[in-house]
Amino acid sequence: MTSWIPLPQRRLIRWCTFILLVTPITTAMAAGTEAAPPANTTPSAMTIHIPIPVTPLAELYGNVNQQLATHRSRGREWITLGSGSAFLKYRLWPDEQSSTTAGDRLLSQSTVPFGVEYAKQIKGSITKIADCGQREAATGTGRLSVTVATMFKQGRSYTVLPASQVNAVQSTQSCVLSEQGVDASPLMMQVYRSDLLEVLPAVDRKAAGLLPIKPAVTKIWNDLQEPLLLDETEQLWLMLNPDTTAAAGVAPLSGSPAAGYGVTARPTVVRGTKPTSRHLPLPEPQDHFRDDGFHVDFALQVPIEEANQRLREAVIGQEWSLGVGTIKIVNATLYPLGNQVGVELVLRGLLPLTLRLKGTPAYDESSGRILFRGVDYTIKERTPATDLAEEWLHEPLREELAGRLSLPIREELDLMRQALEKGLNRELTGGRLRGTVSQLSLEDLAVQPTSLSVRFKTEGTLRYDARPDVAAP
Protein backbone atom coordinates (compact mmCIF):
# COMPACT_ATOMS: atom_id res chain seq x y z
CA MET A 1 0.00 0.00 0.00
CA THR A 2 1.40 3.44 -0.89
CA SER A 3 2.64 5.64 1.95
CA TRP A 4 0.40 8.64 1.18
CA ILE A 5 -2.74 6.81 2.38
CA PRO A 6 -3.60 7.96 5.96
CA LEU A 7 -2.89 5.43 8.70
CA PRO A 8 -6.56 4.89 9.70
CA GLN A 9 -7.45 4.06 6.09
CA ARG A 10 -4.50 1.69 5.82
CA ARG A 11 -5.80 -0.12 8.87
CA LEU A 12 -9.25 -0.22 7.32
CA ILE A 13 -7.82 -1.68 4.12
CA ARG A 14 -5.99 -4.38 6.10
CA TRP A 15 -9.30 -5.24 7.71
CA CYS A 16 -10.94 -5.57 4.29
CA THR A 17 -8.04 -7.72 3.13
CA PHE A 18 -8.57 -10.00 6.10
CA ILE A 19 -12.22 -10.40 5.16
CA LEU A 20 -11.25 -11.34 1.63
CA LEU A 21 -8.96 -14.11 2.82
CA VAL A 22 -11.06 -15.75 5.53
CA THR A 23 -13.41 -18.59 4.69
CA PRO A 24 -15.46 -20.80 6.99
CA ILE A 25 -14.01 -24.13 8.11
CA THR A 26 -16.79 -26.63 8.42
CA THR A 27 -16.37 -29.84 10.36
CA ALA A 28 -16.03 -31.82 7.14
CA MET A 29 -13.34 -29.49 5.81
CA ALA A 30 -11.33 -29.48 9.02
CA ALA A 31 -11.39 -33.25 9.13
CA GLY A 32 -10.20 -33.46 5.51
CA THR A 33 -13.27 -35.37 4.34
CA GLU A 34 -15.04 -34.93 1.06
CA ALA A 35 -16.56 -31.45 0.77
CA ALA A 36 -19.69 -31.61 -1.32
CA PRO A 37 -20.78 -28.37 -3.02
CA PRO A 38 -23.71 -26.57 -1.41
CA ALA A 39 -27.05 -27.25 -3.08
CA ASN A 40 -27.48 -23.57 -4.03
CA THR A 41 -24.04 -23.20 -5.65
CA THR A 42 -24.32 -21.32 -8.93
CA PRO A 43 -23.43 -23.60 -11.88
CA SER A 44 -20.29 -22.66 -13.78
CA ALA A 45 -19.28 -23.65 -17.28
CA MET A 46 -15.83 -24.64 -18.49
CA THR A 47 -14.48 -26.47 -21.53
CA ILE A 48 -11.89 -29.17 -22.04
CA HIS A 49 -10.04 -29.62 -25.33
CA ILE A 50 -8.53 -32.96 -26.30
CA PRO A 51 -6.19 -32.98 -29.32
CA ILE A 52 -7.21 -35.57 -31.91
CA PRO A 53 -4.16 -37.78 -32.67
CA VAL A 54 -3.64 -37.03 -36.36
CA THR A 55 -0.36 -38.93 -36.82
CA PRO A 56 -1.92 -42.42 -37.07
CA LEU A 57 -4.78 -40.96 -39.10
CA ALA A 58 -2.39 -39.32 -41.55
CA GLU A 59 -0.68 -42.66 -42.12
CA LEU A 60 -4.01 -44.41 -42.60
CA TYR A 61 -5.38 -41.89 -45.09
CA GLY A 62 -2.01 -41.62 -46.81
CA ASN A 63 -2.23 -45.33 -47.62
CA VAL A 64 -5.58 -45.02 -49.41
CA ASN A 65 -3.90 -44.61 -52.77
CA GLN A 66 -1.78 -47.70 -52.17
CA GLN A 67 -4.88 -49.66 -51.21
CA LEU A 68 -6.50 -48.67 -54.50
CA ALA A 69 -3.32 -49.54 -56.37
CA THR A 70 -3.23 -53.01 -54.81
CA HIS A 71 -6.93 -53.53 -55.47
CA ARG A 72 -6.63 -52.55 -59.13
CA SER A 73 -3.43 -54.47 -59.84
CA ARG A 74 -4.89 -57.64 -58.37
CA GLY A 75 -8.35 -57.40 -59.79
CA ARG A 76 -7.36 -56.17 -63.21
CA GLU A 77 -11.03 -55.53 -63.84
CA TRP A 78 -12.14 -53.16 -66.50
CA ILE A 79 -14.08 -50.06 -65.50
CA THR A 80 -17.08 -49.42 -67.70
CA LEU A 81 -17.21 -45.91 -69.10
CA GLY A 82 -20.18 -43.95 -70.37
CA SER A 83 -22.77 -46.03 -72.21
CA GLY A 84 -20.79 -49.24 -71.78
CA SER A 85 -18.94 -49.32 -75.09
CA ALA A 86 -15.61 -48.13 -73.67
CA PHE A 87 -13.51 -49.49 -70.80
CA LEU A 88 -10.53 -48.46 -68.73
CA LYS A 89 -7.98 -50.07 -66.40
CA TYR A 90 -5.52 -48.08 -64.35
CA ARG A 91 -2.29 -48.82 -62.57
CA LEU A 92 -0.86 -46.74 -59.72
CA TRP A 93 2.80 -46.39 -58.86
CA PRO A 94 4.19 -45.70 -55.35
CA ASP A 95 3.13 -42.16 -54.50
CA GLU A 96 4.41 -39.17 -52.59
CA GLN A 97 2.23 -38.20 -49.63
CA SER A 98 2.00 -35.59 -46.91
CA SER A 99 -0.57 -34.26 -44.49
CA THR A 100 -1.41 -30.97 -42.82
CA THR A 101 -4.06 -29.72 -40.48
CA ALA A 102 -6.25 -26.77 -41.35
CA GLY A 103 -8.50 -25.58 -38.56
CA ASP A 104 -10.68 -28.49 -37.49
CA ARG A 105 -9.74 -30.88 -40.31
CA LEU A 106 -6.95 -33.11 -41.57
CA LEU A 107 -5.79 -32.65 -45.16
CA SER A 108 -4.08 -35.65 -46.80
CA GLN A 109 -2.22 -34.78 -50.00
CA SER A 110 -0.77 -37.25 -52.50
CA THR A 111 0.98 -37.14 -55.85
CA VAL A 112 -0.13 -40.28 -57.68
CA PRO A 113 1.73 -41.56 -60.81
CA PHE A 114 -0.62 -43.61 -62.97
CA GLY A 115 -0.88 -45.50 -66.22
CA VAL A 116 -4.04 -46.60 -68.04
CA GLU A 117 -5.26 -49.07 -70.63
CA TYR A 118 -8.15 -48.06 -72.86
CA ALA A 119 -10.45 -50.62 -74.54
CA LYS A 120 -13.54 -50.86 -76.70
CA GLN A 121 -16.12 -53.60 -77.07
CA ILE A 122 -15.49 -55.17 -80.48
CA LYS A 123 -17.58 -58.11 -81.69
CA GLY A 124 -18.81 -58.81 -78.17
CA SER A 125 -15.44 -58.81 -76.44
CA ILE A 126 -13.37 -56.13 -74.67
CA THR A 127 -10.39 -55.29 -76.83
CA LYS A 128 -7.55 -53.06 -75.71
CA ILE A 129 -6.80 -50.38 -78.26
CA ALA A 130 -4.40 -48.01 -76.44
CA ASP A 131 -2.39 -47.45 -73.25
CA CYS A 132 -0.01 -45.04 -71.54
CA GLY A 133 2.42 -45.25 -68.63
CA GLN A 134 2.21 -49.00 -68.26
CA ARG A 135 5.91 -49.89 -68.05
CA GLU A 136 7.39 -47.75 -65.25
CA ALA A 137 6.81 -44.51 -63.44
CA ALA A 138 9.50 -42.70 -65.41
CA THR A 139 8.10 -43.66 -68.80
CA GLY A 140 5.08 -41.74 -69.92
CA THR A 141 3.05 -41.95 -66.72
CA GLY A 142 0.54 -39.34 -65.83
CA ARG A 143 0.34 -37.72 -62.42
CA LEU A 144 -2.59 -36.73 -60.25
CA SER A 145 -2.55 -34.39 -57.30
CA VAL A 146 -5.11 -35.66 -54.79
CA THR A 147 -6.36 -33.94 -51.61
CA VAL A 148 -8.66 -35.66 -49.13
CA ALA A 149 -10.19 -33.61 -46.31
CA THR A 150 -11.20 -35.41 -43.12
CA MET A 151 -13.60 -33.61 -40.81
CA PHE A 152 -14.47 -34.76 -37.31
CA LYS A 153 -17.79 -34.82 -35.51
CA GLN A 154 -18.61 -36.00 -32.03
CA GLY A 155 -20.64 -39.13 -31.50
CA ARG A 156 -22.19 -40.74 -28.47
CA SER A 157 -20.23 -41.75 -25.39
CA TYR A 158 -17.14 -39.63 -26.12
CA THR A 159 -16.49 -40.91 -29.61
CA VAL A 160 -15.09 -38.90 -32.50
CA LEU A 161 -16.24 -39.88 -35.96
CA PRO A 162 -14.09 -38.97 -39.01
CA ALA A 163 -15.93 -38.05 -42.21
CA SER A 164 -13.80 -37.68 -45.33
CA GLN A 165 -14.45 -36.11 -48.69
CA VAL A 166 -12.39 -35.64 -51.84
CA ASN A 167 -11.35 -32.01 -51.97
CA ALA A 168 -9.48 -32.13 -55.24
CA VAL A 169 -8.23 -34.51 -57.95
CA GLN A 170 -6.13 -32.58 -60.46
CA SER A 171 -3.80 -33.56 -63.28
CA THR A 172 -0.21 -32.40 -62.93
CA GLN A 173 1.23 -34.49 -65.77
CA SER A 174 -0.38 -35.85 -68.93
CA CYS A 175 -0.64 -39.51 -69.82
CA VAL A 176 -0.93 -39.66 -73.63
CA LEU A 177 -2.54 -42.75 -75.07
CA SER A 178 -0.50 -44.51 -77.73
CA GLU A 179 -1.80 -44.42 -81.27
CA GLN A 180 -4.59 -41.90 -80.58
CA GLY A 181 -2.34 -39.26 -79.01
CA VAL A 182 -5.12 -38.33 -76.56
CA ASP A 183 -4.42 -37.30 -72.94
CA ALA A 184 -6.13 -39.78 -70.60
CA SER A 185 -5.75 -37.55 -67.51
CA PRO A 186 -9.26 -35.96 -67.58
CA LEU A 187 -10.85 -39.40 -67.76
CA MET A 188 -8.55 -40.76 -65.05
CA MET A 189 -9.44 -37.84 -62.77
CA GLN A 190 -13.14 -38.78 -62.93
CA VAL A 191 -12.52 -42.50 -62.44
CA TYR A 192 -10.11 -42.02 -59.55
CA ARG A 193 -12.41 -39.56 -57.72
CA SER A 194 -15.24 -42.07 -58.00
CA ASP A 195 -13.07 -44.90 -56.63
CA LEU A 196 -11.88 -42.75 -53.72
CA LEU A 197 -15.44 -41.83 -52.76
CA GLU A 198 -16.30 -45.51 -52.74
CA VAL A 199 -13.53 -46.60 -50.34
CA LEU A 200 -13.37 -43.58 -47.97
CA PRO A 201 -16.35 -44.58 -45.75
CA ALA A 202 -14.60 -47.85 -44.85
CA VAL A 203 -11.38 -45.95 -44.13
CA ASP A 204 -13.31 -43.52 -41.91
CA ARG A 205 -14.77 -46.42 -39.91
CA LYS A 206 -11.28 -47.83 -39.40
CA ALA A 207 -9.97 -44.38 -38.43
CA ALA A 208 -12.63 -44.04 -35.72
CA GLY A 209 -11.00 -46.95 -33.91
CA LEU A 210 -7.74 -44.98 -33.70
CA LEU A 211 -9.32 -42.17 -31.64
CA PRO A 212 -9.49 -43.24 -27.97
CA ILE A 213 -11.09 -40.05 -26.67
CA LYS A 214 -13.06 -41.47 -23.71
CA PRO A 215 -10.00 -42.58 -21.68
CA ALA A 216 -8.58 -39.08 -22.11
CA VAL A 217 -11.83 -37.45 -20.94
CA THR A 218 -11.91 -39.81 -17.95
CA LYS A 219 -8.37 -38.82 -16.98
CA ILE A 220 -9.23 -35.13 -17.20
CA TRP A 221 -12.54 -35.61 -15.34
CA ASN A 222 -10.59 -37.16 -12.46
CA ASP A 223 -8.10 -34.27 -12.64
CA LEU A 224 -10.92 -31.77 -12.22
CA GLN A 225 -12.09 -33.46 -9.01
CA GLU A 226 -8.78 -32.78 -7.27
CA PRO A 227 -8.66 -29.78 -4.88
CA LEU A 228 -6.58 -26.86 -6.21
CA LEU A 229 -4.47 -24.94 -3.69
CA LEU A 230 -5.07 -21.22 -4.24
CA ASP A 231 -3.18 -19.75 -1.29
CA GLU A 232 -0.68 -21.79 0.72
CA THR A 233 -0.41 -19.27 3.58
CA GLU A 234 -4.17 -19.05 4.11
CA GLN A 235 -4.75 -22.70 3.11
CA LEU A 236 -7.40 -21.79 0.58
CA TRP A 237 -8.58 -24.59 -1.74
CA LEU A 238 -10.73 -24.43 -4.83
CA MET A 239 -13.00 -27.40 -5.40
CA LEU A 240 -14.22 -27.33 -9.02
CA ASN A 241 -16.85 -30.03 -8.38
CA PRO A 242 -17.55 -31.08 -12.00
CA ASP A 243 -21.15 -32.15 -12.39
CA THR A 244 -22.13 -32.86 -16.01
CA THR A 245 -20.55 -32.90 -19.48
CA ALA A 246 -21.74 -32.19 -23.00
CA ALA A 247 -20.26 -32.26 -26.48
CA ALA A 248 -18.92 -28.84 -27.45
CA GLY A 249 -17.74 -29.38 -31.01
CA VAL A 250 -14.36 -29.78 -32.70
CA ALA A 251 -12.07 -26.76 -32.95
CA PRO A 252 -8.35 -26.12 -33.55
CA LEU A 253 -5.94 -26.36 -30.63
CA SER A 254 -2.29 -25.43 -31.26
CA GLY A 255 -2.79 -26.04 -34.96
CA SER A 256 -4.50 -29.43 -34.67
CA PRO A 257 -8.15 -30.46 -34.42
CA ALA A 258 -9.34 -30.97 -30.84
CA ALA A 259 -12.53 -32.47 -29.46
CA GLY A 260 -14.23 -30.08 -27.09
CA TYR A 261 -16.41 -31.04 -24.15
CA GLY A 262 -18.27 -28.63 -21.96
CA VAL A 263 -18.26 -29.28 -18.23
CA THR A 264 -20.79 -27.88 -15.80
CA ALA A 265 -19.21 -27.44 -12.38
CA ARG A 266 -20.28 -26.10 -8.98
CA PRO A 267 -17.05 -24.59 -7.63
CA THR A 268 -16.55 -23.71 -3.98
CA VAL A 269 -13.67 -22.27 -1.97
CA VAL A 270 -12.77 -23.87 1.36
CA ARG A 271 -10.13 -23.19 3.98
CA GLY A 272 -8.14 -25.59 6.09
CA THR A 273 -6.56 -28.95 5.47
CA LYS A 274 -6.72 -30.36 1.95
CA PRO A 275 -10.23 -31.69 1.23
CA THR A 276 -10.59 -35.25 0.03
CA SER A 277 -10.92 -35.65 -3.73
CA ARG A 278 -14.33 -36.44 -5.11
CA HIS A 279 -14.64 -39.72 -6.99
CA LEU A 280 -17.71 -39.31 -9.17
CA PRO A 281 -17.62 -41.50 -12.30
CA LEU A 282 -17.55 -39.83 -15.71
CA PRO A 283 -21.18 -39.25 -16.78
CA GLU A 284 -22.50 -39.72 -20.28
CA PRO A 285 -22.30 -36.46 -22.25
CA GLN A 286 -25.44 -34.43 -22.79
CA ASP A 287 -26.40 -33.19 -26.24
CA HIS A 288 -26.07 -29.45 -25.77
CA PHE A 289 -23.56 -27.27 -23.97
CA ARG A 290 -24.10 -23.64 -23.06
CA ASP A 291 -21.02 -21.71 -21.98
CA ASP A 292 -22.22 -19.16 -19.44
CA GLY A 293 -18.73 -18.53 -18.11
CA PHE A 294 -16.99 -19.59 -14.95
CA HIS A 295 -17.94 -17.93 -11.68
CA VAL A 296 -17.30 -18.57 -8.02
CA ASP A 297 -19.27 -17.07 -5.15
CA PHE A 298 -17.34 -16.73 -1.89
CA ALA A 299 -19.75 -16.92 1.04
CA LEU A 300 -17.47 -15.96 3.94
CA GLN A 301 -18.17 -15.79 7.65
CA VAL A 302 -15.95 -13.75 9.98
CA PRO A 303 -16.54 -14.31 13.75
CA ILE A 304 -18.12 -11.18 15.21
CA GLU A 305 -15.40 -10.76 17.84
CA GLU A 306 -12.72 -10.76 15.15
CA ALA A 307 -14.71 -8.41 12.91
CA ASN A 308 -15.15 -5.97 15.79
CA GLN A 309 -11.44 -6.08 16.54
CA ARG A 310 -10.59 -5.31 12.91
CA LEU A 311 -13.15 -2.49 12.83
CA ARG A 312 -11.69 -0.95 15.97
CA GLU A 313 -8.19 -1.10 14.55
CA ALA A 314 -9.49 0.74 11.50
CA VAL A 315 -11.55 3.56 13.02
CA ILE A 316 -10.49 4.18 16.63
CA GLY A 317 -8.42 7.34 16.78
CA GLN A 318 -10.04 9.06 13.82
CA GLU A 319 -10.54 12.71 14.66
CA TRP A 320 -12.09 15.60 12.79
CA SER A 321 -13.50 19.10 13.31
CA LEU A 322 -17.06 20.29 12.88
CA GLY A 323 -16.05 23.95 13.06
CA VAL A 324 -16.93 24.47 16.71
CA GLY A 325 -14.82 21.67 18.09
CA THR A 326 -13.27 18.27 17.38
CA ILE A 327 -14.72 14.78 17.56
CA LYS A 328 -12.71 11.63 18.13
CA ILE A 329 -13.77 7.98 17.82
CA VAL A 330 -12.71 5.98 20.88
CA ASN A 331 -14.65 2.72 20.38
CA ALA A 332 -16.71 0.90 17.75
CA THR A 333 -18.91 -2.22 17.76
CA LEU A 334 -20.93 -3.95 15.03
CA TYR A 335 -24.51 -5.05 15.62
CA PRO A 336 -27.07 -6.83 13.38
CA LEU A 337 -29.83 -4.96 11.57
CA GLY A 338 -31.26 -7.41 9.04
CA ASN A 339 -30.03 -6.42 5.58
CA GLN A 340 -28.34 -3.34 7.01
CA VAL A 341 -25.14 -2.90 8.98
CA GLY A 342 -25.17 -1.30 12.41
CA VAL A 343 -22.13 0.30 14.04
CA GLU A 344 -22.09 1.66 17.55
CA LEU A 345 -19.54 4.49 17.83
CA VAL A 346 -18.34 6.03 21.09
CA LEU A 347 -17.27 9.65 20.52
CA ARG A 348 -15.34 12.04 22.75
CA GLY A 349 -14.45 15.70 22.43
CA LEU A 350 -17.10 18.21 21.46
CA LEU A 351 -19.74 15.48 21.69
CA PRO A 352 -19.02 12.85 24.39
CA LEU A 353 -21.75 10.48 23.36
CA THR A 354 -22.56 7.12 21.82
CA LEU A 355 -24.08 6.89 18.35
CA ARG A 356 -25.86 3.94 16.84
CA LEU A 357 -25.34 4.13 13.07
CA LYS A 358 -27.15 2.16 10.44
CA GLY A 359 -26.65 1.91 6.68
CA THR A 360 -27.08 -0.42 3.73
CA PRO A 361 -23.72 -1.60 2.34
CA ALA A 362 -23.21 -1.76 -1.42
CA TYR A 363 -20.12 -2.18 -3.58
CA ASP A 364 -19.63 0.65 -6.06
CA GLU A 365 -17.70 -0.74 -9.04
CA SER A 366 -16.80 2.67 -10.48
CA SER A 367 -15.07 3.86 -7.31
CA GLY A 368 -13.94 0.48 -6.01
CA ARG A 369 -15.43 1.19 -2.59
CA ILE A 370 -17.95 -0.24 -0.19
CA LEU A 371 -20.46 2.55 0.30
CA PHE A 372 -23.16 2.71 2.94
CA ARG A 373 -26.38 4.11 1.58
CA GLY A 374 -29.14 5.63 3.66
CA VAL A 375 -26.79 6.25 6.61
CA ASP A 376 -28.41 7.64 9.73
CA TYR A 377 -27.88 7.47 13.46
CA THR A 378 -29.54 7.81 16.82
CA ILE A 379 -27.98 8.99 20.07
CA LYS A 380 -27.93 6.35 22.76
CA GLU A 381 -27.81 8.84 25.69
CA ARG A 382 -30.63 11.35 25.89
CA THR A 383 -29.67 14.47 27.87
CA PRO A 384 -30.39 18.19 27.34
CA ALA A 385 -26.84 18.54 25.97
CA THR A 386 -27.23 15.71 23.47
CA ASP A 387 -30.66 16.99 22.45
CA LEU A 388 -29.14 20.39 21.73
CA ALA A 389 -26.30 18.84 19.77
CA GLU A 390 -28.78 16.72 17.86
CA GLU A 391 -30.79 19.77 16.91
CA TRP A 392 -27.84 21.72 15.56
CA LEU A 393 -25.40 19.07 14.33
CA HIS A 394 -27.44 16.09 13.19
CA GLU A 395 -27.08 16.67 9.45
CA PRO A 396 -23.40 17.74 9.41
CA LEU A 397 -22.47 14.82 11.67
CA ARG A 398 -24.56 12.34 9.65
CA GLU A 399 -22.91 13.45 6.41
CA GLU A 400 -19.44 13.29 7.97
CA LEU A 401 -20.03 9.79 9.31
CA ALA A 402 -21.53 8.61 6.01
CA GLY A 403 -18.37 9.74 4.22
CA ARG A 404 -16.15 7.97 6.74
CA LEU A 405 -17.98 4.69 6.19
CA SER A 406 -16.68 4.55 2.61
CA LEU A 407 -14.27 1.61 2.50
CA PRO A 408 -11.71 1.50 -0.38
CA ILE A 409 -11.16 -2.14 -1.41
CA ARG A 410 -10.44 -2.04 -5.16
CA GLU A 411 -6.74 -2.73 -4.75
CA GLU A 412 -7.44 -5.67 -2.47
CA LEU A 413 -10.03 -7.03 -4.91
CA ASP A 414 -7.51 -6.71 -7.75
CA LEU A 415 -4.85 -8.51 -5.71
CA MET A 416 -7.24 -11.30 -4.88
CA ARG A 417 -8.39 -11.49 -8.50
CA GLN A 418 -4.76 -11.87 -9.57
CA ALA A 419 -4.14 -14.53 -6.92
CA LEU A 420 -7.23 -16.45 -8.00
CA GLU A 421 -6.26 -16.19 -11.66
CA LYS A 422 -2.77 -17.46 -10.83
CA GLY A 423 -4.34 -20.42 -9.05
CA LEU A 424 -6.46 -21.21 -12.10
CA ASN A 425 -3.46 -21.40 -14.45
CA ARG A 426 -1.41 -24.51 -13.75
CA GLU A 427 -0.21 -27.81 -15.07
CA LEU A 428 -2.33 -30.83 -14.16
CA THR A 429 -1.90 -34.54 -14.79
CA GLY A 430 -3.28 -34.57 -18.32
CA GLY A 431 -2.70 -31.02 -19.49
CA ARG A 432 -2.94 -27.38 -18.50
CA LEU A 433 -5.73 -25.49 -16.78
CA ARG A 434 -6.18 -21.97 -18.18
CA GLY A 435 -8.34 -19.45 -16.36
CA THR A 436 -9.13 -15.77 -16.52
CA VAL A 437 -10.88 -13.75 -13.84
CA SER A 438 -12.45 -10.76 -15.52
CA GLN A 439 -14.18 -9.41 -12.42
CA LEU A 440 -14.25 -9.88 -8.67
CA SER A 441 -16.76 -7.83 -6.73
CA LEU A 442 -18.43 -7.64 -3.34
CA GLU A 443 -22.07 -8.68 -3.55
CA ASP A 444 -23.29 -8.53 0.03
CA LEU A 445 -22.16 -7.51 3.53
CA ALA A 446 -24.33 -8.19 6.57
CA VAL A 447 -23.85 -8.33 10.33
CA GLN A 448 -25.30 -11.38 12.04
CA PRO A 449 -25.45 -12.04 15.80
CA THR A 450 -22.33 -14.23 15.78
CA SER A 451 -20.53 -13.28 12.57
CA LEU A 452 -19.94 -10.80 9.79
CA SER A 453 -21.21 -12.32 6.55
CA VAL A 454 -19.40 -11.26 3.37
CA ARG A 455 -20.19 -12.55 -0.12
CA PHE A 456 -17.97 -11.96 -3.14
CA LYS A 457 -18.57 -12.93 -6.74
CA THR A 458 -16.07 -13.70 -9.49
CA GLU A 459 -16.67 -13.86 -13.23
CA GLY A 460 -14.32 -15.32 -15.81
CA THR A 461 -13.53 -18.26 -18.05
CA LEU A 462 -11.92 -21.63 -17.48
CA ARG A 463 -10.63 -24.22 -19.94
CA TYR A 464 -8.48 -27.32 -19.83
CA ASP A 465 -6.16 -27.98 -22.75
CA ALA A 466 -5.02 -31.59 -22.77
CA ARG A 467 -1.51 -32.57 -23.77
CA PRO A 468 -1.10 -33.80 -27.36
CA ASP A 469 -0.33 -37.34 -26.18
CA VAL A 470 -3.27 -37.67 -23.79
CA ALA A 471 -5.40 -39.41 -26.45
CA ALA A 472 -2.58 -41.30 -28.13
CA PRO A 473 -3.55 -44.94 -28.87
Written account of the structure:
There is one protein chain. The protein is of the alpha+beta class. It has two domains: 316 residues, no CATH class; 155 residues. It has nine helices and 23 strands. The strands form four sheets. Strands 1, 11, 12, 14, 21, 22 and 23 form a seven-stranded mixed beta sheet that branches. Strands 2, 3, 4, 5, 6, 7 and 8 form a seven-stranded antiparallel beta sheet that branches. Strands 15-16-17-18-19-20 form a six-stranded antiparallel beta sheet. A hairpin with a 4-residue loop joins strand 2 and strand 3. Helix 1 packs antiparallel against helix 7. The longest helix has 24 residues. It is rod-shaped. The N terminus is likely disordered.
User: Which stretches are poorly predicted, pLDDT < 50 over at least 5 residues?
Assistant: 1-35
Count of runs of 4 or more consecutive helical residues: 9
| Alpha carbon gap, first and last residue | 54 Å
Content of β-strand: 35-45%
Q: How helix-rich are the residues, as a percent range?
A: 25-40%
Mean pLDDT: 81
Number of strands: 23
Q: Which word captures the global form?
A: rod-shaped
What descriptive keywords fit this protein?
rod-shaped; alpha+beta; disordered N terminus; 473 residues; seven-stranded antiparallel beta sheet; seven-stranded mixed beta sheet
